[in-house]
Design a protein that fits this description.
Length: about 525
């Protein structure tokens, strides 16, 4: 079986994405997580380019890696500068990594217009740099920048650049689609020519400007590439790099090629979410394999089928990549959706149970009013329990008041909420301020209830979304509020809908608290 090596450049190429900036601690934590995933090479950055990258190479040496080699990235020597005197080359050696990846120009347009040097000088720059580094570092790779554009413009010269690296002793030659515009059908002829001229192992590094990065990577592997480069979640400059979260399972599960172990593959979704968190980026639900929606089923016919055999609507088993099957509920749901969710929630319900019909009717009516339960499964579980007569009432609202006061033009408004509730025979009144009326109401409700239910101290509001449902009605429009809450163990979503945003928020807040208490107080 062919073995494909995975080269991750999240810490260098990925950090060039708009809105992403990793701290030094972020980079160390991501590197350790990538090592757990079984990544073979982790590109740490460009030593000398900035203090953070330089410090990374020093700090990462304090940690033991079990699978990965750290690679430093940099460019060939500058024109008309001796390699031993070049600052970039010196910085690469100062990183003291076992691997150096060297950027070399292969497109004659770049040599003339970017480097402003001769084609012959560029060949010497590649040869000198690779040969010098190879005498100091165990493993040297050439990233053949803009190779595919260079080959299409001047194939003879592009091939000469690779030959210079090969003659100098490069261990791997990585073909880069730097502008991301190459089509998969162009690769076979280029690789055929490559095999006639280059004997060194080949790698592939693609960008996603034409939405072809993963496709080009997979095609390149089928044509003989033994190393793939990419980033977690496809982060990278412009439209991003090839997404390793799609490439790795495609290699293992579709092409049946070895790259990481089955156990490591089951960590893929976890790593995807981990990198998103440190990048401070919202996880894209529809990302293949690792997205929240990757194995989610909504239509009643689909759900009925996957209950009988998951293969009917799933191309691989979600557990293989650390994901889970999800059954969604909406106005498109049928009995199968409801029964599946009942089983998931531990609610005793049979197909002919009158509650099933009631739940479906209620679901369609509520969604017609603007409710949405796809992201609010906590509210849906409570709806099901109510239909079965098992939803408990933990408190009665006796009233609340929310005040927003602005005293001066240049000051932020002050928000304050007062709430009166009854728990059993006891009345409780609480007041609290907050960052806005909803936050004030949330704080007051928790303050009133935590005396009776200390479990609520573990709960925090993670996300708060407001959607206007009738845009043409302006400020009179209905609003839908989706809240995501969580504790130490799990997260859950709840929903509320009203023409009054405070009432919609209240509905979602109450469901959030009820869900937590049902979860904790099952007896």
């Amino acid at each position: 079986m062919r073995y494909i090596k995975i080269y991750d450049t999240t810490l260098r190429d990925g950090s060039q994405a708009e809105d992403i900036s990793f701290s030094l601690e972020d980079k160390i934590r991501i590197a350790l997580k990538l090592d757990e995933l079984g990544i073979h090479y982790i590109e740490g950055g460009w030593p000398g380019a900035n203090p953070k990258d330089t410090e990374f190479f020093s700090e990462i040496k304090k940690h033991k890696l079990h699978h990965a080699k750290i690679a430093a990235f940099g460019s060939t020597r500058k024109p008309k500068v001796k390699v031993a005197a070049d600052e970039n080359i010196a910085a690469l050696l100062s990183a003291k990594t076992p691997v150096v990846t060297l950027l070399g120009k292969t497109w004659d347009l770049h040599v003339r217009d970017a480097l402003r040097t001769s084609l012959e000088e560029n060949l010497e720059m590649i040869y000198d740099s690779v040969k010098y580094l190879k005498s100091c570092v165990p493993e040297v790779m050439l990233d053949a920048e803009h190779f595919f554009d260079g080959y299409k413009g001047n194939p003879k010269y592009a091939m000469k650049t690779l030959k210079a690296a090969e003659d100098a002793g490069a261990d791997v030659i990585v073909l880069c689609d730097t502008n991301g515009g190459t089509m998969p059908n162009e690769l076979p002829a280029i690789f055929d020519d490559m095999k006639k001229n280059i004997s060194k192992p080949l790698g592939i590094h693609t960008h996603n400007d034409a939405e072809m990065a993963v496709a080009n990577t997979i095609v390149a592997v089928t044509l003989g590439a033994g190393q793939v480069q990419g980033t977690i979640n496809g982060y990278g400059e412009r439209c991003g790099n090839a997404n390793l979260c799609s490439i790795i399972p495609n290699l293992k599960l579709k092409l049946k090629l070895d790259c990481i172990t089955d156990g490591q593959l089951r960590k893929l979704r976890e790593v995807s979410y981990f990198v998103d968190e440190l990048a401070n980026m919202r996880h894209w639900n529809h990302r293949p394999y690792v997205g929240k929606s990757a194995f989610a089923h909504k239509g009643g016919i689909h759900v009925s089928a996957v209950m009988k055999n998951p293969e009917t609507y799933e191309h691989v088993r979600p557990e293989l990549v650390g994901s889970t099957q999800r059954i969604l509920v909406s106005e498109q749901s049928g009995r199968s959706n409801v029964l599946w969710k009942a089983k998931e929630y531990g609610i005793d319900m049979e197909s002919q149970d009158p509650a099933v019909k009631h739940i479906l009717h209620e679901l369609k009516e509520l969604e017609n009013q603007g409710f949405q339960f796809e992201g609010a499964e906590g509210s849906f579980e409570l709806l099901m329990k109510e239909a079965k007569g098992v939803r408990k009432k933990f408190f009665d609202l006796k009233g609340f008041r929310v005040i927003v006061e602005k005293r001066r033009m240049d000051e932020e408004p002050i928000s304050e909420a007062t709430i009166k509730i009854q728990v059993g025979e006891k009345l409780e009144v609480a007041a609290a301020e907050g960052n806005g009326p909803v936050n004030a109401l949330d704080n007051a409700l928790r303050r009133a209830l935590e005396k009776f239910y200390p479990e609520l101290k573990e709960t925090k509001l993670i996300d708060f979304k407001v959607r206007i449902l009738e845009e043409k009605k302006g400020t009179e429009a209905k609003t839908r509020v989706l809240i995501e809450s969580g504790d130490y163990e799990s997260k859950w979503g709840t929903v509320g809908v009203s023409g009054n945003i405070i009432e919609a928020s209240w509905q979602a807040l109450v469901d959030s608290i009820d869900y937590k208490l049902h979860k904790e107080l099952k007896s």
